[in-house]
Structure formats: structure tokens, C-alpha cells
Amino acid sequence: MGFHIFFFVPNVIGYIRILLVLIAWILYSDPRSFVPLYVLSIILDGVDGWAARRLQQTSRFGAWLDVVIDNLGRGMIWNMLYEWGWLVSSVEWCVFVCNHNARGAQWKNSFTESPVWVRAVMAKGFKTPLGILTIAGLHVLPVWLYGYQYEVLSQTLFVPNWLQILGILVLTAGRLLSFAVEMWCIVTHLRFLIDEEEEKKN
């Protein structure tokens, strides 16, 4: 077994991200500590991918770990923000299971037969207007809502109220688009499971 993979630089960055998310969770009610810790974790999410490509240290474990940490962080915020936050987190974990079970580490590149609107979101690794809106809704919306609830946006960043509300609306639109893609992934996986059962019978 290649234990050396656990010590790849991008994976070590992932372990640091886990630690940051855990500390942020402990300090959740202190915005001055929570926001920098969580934002640093998000920044490192981009750094680990760059490091993996730069150092040629991509791996299936690293791809799996990256999504797990993303889900842990967002799930933590959604669950702390709202009583119903677990629903958002549950959908994200369900999609994670569907995509990585059927498609593995290459899940981002396996949507060639999906509907046009799904391909538009996924194209170029989310580097399209729709893709950027979707990723913003997925990653930024919970942090923006935290900043709104704890008055970080108004008291620390001096964001006017109208812009705070506009941000919530735009990011919510992105999150709903993400939800639509997530539902498509789940339905597609269910069809895959049913077809697989039918093939076994035949």
C-alpha cells in the first residue's frame, strides 16, 4: 500500500484545513476568530489543488480528501446557522457518495452525456459564468450568511444593507443552481444502480 501518498504536500495541506475547520467550529461564536480561520481554509482549498498539479502529486485519495474537507466545513456552518442546515449538508454528502462511488477521482470530467445546462455549469472545471456562480453559491453563501447574522458584513466590512441582501439573493441563486445539478447527479446515480441490477438479472 502506498502510504507515501498520505504525505503528499496537497494532502498535508488538507490535514491543516481539517484542523482549521475544527478550531473554527470551536470558536464559531467569535467572528474575529471564526472568519479568518474559515476563510484561510477556503484559500488553502485552492492552494492544495495547485500544489497537486505543480508537484505532480495528484491522487485518488487526495481528490477524495479534498471533497470530504469541503463538505465538513460547509456542513459545519449550515448546521450552526440553521436548525434545518443538516438538510443542505445531507444533500452534499449524498452527492459525494454518488459521484465518487460511480466516477471516482475524475468525477468533474465525467459529465459529457449530461444535459446542456449541467455541462454549462461543469465546463472548464467550473471556469464559466454559470460555473463561477454555482461555486460561489456553494462555498460563499454560508460564509456570507454567517457574516450577515453576526454583523461582520455591516460592523467590520461596512457593507451597506442593500448590498448584503443583494449578495444573499445572488449567492442563493447560485446555490439553487448547484442544488439542481446535485439532484441530477443523485437521479443519474439511482438510474445507474437500477440498470446495474437489471443487467445482473439478465
CA radius of gyration: 18 Å
Question: Which ranges are low-confidence, i.e. pLDDT below 50, for 5 or more consecutive residues?
Answer: none
Q: What's the number of helices? A: 8
Overall structural class, as computed from helix and strand content, comes to mainly alpha
The proportion of residues forming helix, as a percent range, comes to over 70%
Helix and strand element order: HHHHHHHH
Overall geometric form = globular
Percentage of residues in DSSP E strands:
under 5%
How many E strands?
0
* End-to-end Cα distance: 37 Å
Largest sheet: none
Nearest-integer average pLDDT: 90
GO molecular function: phosphotransferase activity, for other substituted phosphate groups
GO biological process, one term: phospholipid biosynthetic process
Family: Belongs to the CDP-alcohol phosphatidyltransferase class-I family.
Pfam families: CDP-OH_P_transf
Overview of the molecule:
The radius of gyration is 18 Å and the shape is globular. Helix content is 79%, strand content 0%. It is built from 8 helices and no strands. Helix 1 (9-26) runs antiparallel to helix 2 (31-54) and helix 1 runs parallel beside helix 3 (60-81). The chain has 202 residues and is an all-alpha fold.
Write a concise synopsis of the structure shown.
The chain is 79% helix and 0% strand. With 202 residues, it is mostly helical. Pfam families: CDP-OH_P_transf.
Topology:
Layout: H1 9-26, H2 31-54, H3 60-81, H4 85-102, H5 116-126, H6 129-149, H7 152-156, H8 161-201
